[in-house]
Amino acid sequence: IMMWFCLCPLFQVLVIGDLGVGKTSIIKRYVHQTYSTNYRATIGVDFALKVLNWDSETVRLQLWDIAGQERFGNMTRVYYREAMGAFIVFDVTRPTTFEAITKWKEDLDSKLMLTNRESIATVLLANKCDQGREVLTNNGVKMDQFCKDNGFVGWFKTSAKVGTRTHKHMHTLTHPRAHTH
Ligand code: GDP
Ligand code: MG
């Protein structure tokens, strides 16, 4: 609707990770679950826009999906350039997607460093938690340490299938140094 012409701040948020971890599903879940009258769903094929209120300020959140390019395990610098935050997603049922996380993080950091920017706030999402796996966490302790060691601001278990507190995840990125646990 007219929201599209809103001149409020625009935040670009990347959603990256291996193929099939649920990136597109997470974006769709987030965009469709609430504020359903406020969003402009898909623009082109690669990103979704959501208009929302953060601390009584209206902002536009542009969620960047990667369609197909995740096969290559890295993105072009242009893709990362304007981002203010990122989610790196893995699938709790597939350990190889967890192993790929550091690769994605390095790709992100190295390409943003080339533009002389600080590393952007990055949150780790352990998706498909509805599958009942605990393979990668030990009451969160291992994951907390992993996040610390690898420069993530925090992590969350998510399920695009059953729905999760996605708003909280998004909020983490606007308060990037906030403690998430
Ligand atoms: P992408 O390649 O990272 O964009 O992954 P998709 O969003 O296309 O999801 C890949 C597959 O995983 C699809 O069959 C989804 O239905 C499924 N999927 C995504 N999220 C979840 C989840 O939270 N739980 C379960 N059980 N399946 C999911
Ligand atoms: Mg996808």
TrEMBL record:
Key word Nucleotide-binding present: yes
Record key words, sorted: GTP-binding, Lipoprotein, Membrane, Nucleotide-binding, Prenylation, Signal
Subcellular location: Endomembrane system; Membrane
Lineage: superkingdom: Eukaryota
Topology term for the membrane: Lipid-anchor
GO cellular component terms listed in the entry, alphabetical order: late endosome; lysosome; membrane; phagocytic vesicle; trans-Golgi network
GO MF term set: GTP binding; GTPase activity
Keyword match Signal: yes
Signal sequence, renumbered to the chain: 1-17
Gene3D superfamilies: P-loop containing nucleotide triphosphate hydrolases
One Pfam family here: Ras
Primary location recorded for the protein, binned into one broad class: membrane
GO biological process: endosome to lysosome transport; phagosome-lysosome fusion
Function of the molecule: The small GTPases Rab are key regulators in vesicle trafficking.
PANTHER family linked: RAB FAMILY, RAS-RELATED PROTEIN RAB
Homology family: Belongs to the small GTPase superfamily. Rab family.
Protein name: Ras-related protein Rab
Source taxonomy: Eukaryota, Metazoa, Chordata, Craniata, Vertebrata
